[in-house]
Every structure is written in C-alpha cells, then in structure tokens.
Specification:
mainly alpha; 8 helices; single chain
Length: about 180
C-alpha cells in the first residue's frame, strides 16, 4: 500500500471511523491472521485473536495518535491480543495446520510444535516492551521506523530494545533453539 492509500486511510479515521475499520479489515486482516497464527499456532485461536483485535480497533479507533502507521498500530493490537490469549491459558485442541501457512510449517510436526511452544513460552516471559518490539519486527516484519513511530521513541531505542530482547531469548531458550538476529 502506497503513501497515498495510507493518507486516505488516515483521513478516513478522522471522517468516518466505521468505514476506516472496514477498510483496515479488508486490507490487513490476512496480515493480522498470519501474525496471530505464528504466535498462537492454532487456526481457531488465531481467528479469534484477529476478531478480538478488530473489535478493539473499532472501539478505540479514535485513540490512534496518527504518529505511526495504521498497520503498525493494528499489528501491535493483534500482538497484544495474541499474548493475552496465550497468557490466559486458553488453548483449544490442535487443529490441522492452516493450508495457507503450510509452507511455513516445520517438516517434522512434533519437533516444530515443541520448538514453537518453547519460543512462545520464552516470548511471553519477556518484558512487555521487549516482547512488543520483537514481535512487531520479527513476526509482523515492520520497519524499525514504523515501530519507533508506533511506540513514540527513537529508532535507536527500538534497536536497543530489540538487542535486549534477543539477549533475553538466548537466556530463556534451551540450547539448539537460539534466536537468529
């Protein structure tokens, strides 16, 4: 999406919030789903997470500061919702992998599940600021500048927080599951 489309979405937030939420859902729901699925590793829980995130967006669209991108703001809400569901202990029985994400799954499902669970537990153990920055950078693949704008800080602060998050993950994860910077 180019800058003109982002500007028109930002303008829509001010003039017609309901239409802005619908446009955000049309544009970013697949990205939100991929992010949520990577974090919760369950199709139904990821769908619930995205639905809950858009409910939050609809009720809080007027709180968007306009400093960062709408996508970064939405990804942060999705991340927070996925972490909330994971921390609450809500787990459904594992479902078949989402066919749309099958190429991203590990070749050995048991090993892949164990690795994903270990990483998810370590991610949830990070302080919220580190977890947010790491999730937005690694899973949502947002540029550092967008993360900085969303968090209201300098890019250097985001880089330092990301460095600290990777260091913490190295301490939290068992050997063989170390993060790649």
């Amino acid at each position: 999406m180019g800058p003109d489309a982002n500007d028109s979405l930002a303008a829509l937030v001010a003039t017609d919030p309901a239409a802005a939420v619908a446009a955000l859902a049309d544009r970013y729901a697949p990205d939100c789903y991929r992010l949520a699925y990577r974090l919760v590793q369950d199709h139904h829980t990821a769908q619930d997470c995205v639905q809950n995130a858009f409910v939050r967006v609809a009720s809080r669209i007027d709180t968007w500061r306009g400093a960062g991108s709408l996508r970064a703001w939405l990804m942060r809400i999705t991340t927070n919702e996925a972490c909330r569901l994971a921390v609450s202990g809500r787990r459904v029985l594992p479902t078949a992998p989402d066919p749309a994400l099958a190429a991203e799954e590990a070749p050995d499902p048991v090993e892949g599940r164990e690795r994903a669970d270990a990483v998810r537990r370590a991610l949830l153990a990070l302080p919220p600021g580190q977890r947010d920055v790491l999730t937005l950078r690694h899973y949502a693949q947002l540029p550092l500048a967008d993360i900085a704008a969303e968090r209201g800080c300098a890019v250097g602060t985001v880089k330092a927080t990301l460095f600290q998050a990777y260091a913490a993950l190295r301490r939290l994860l068992p050997d063989g599951l170390q993060p790649e910077d």
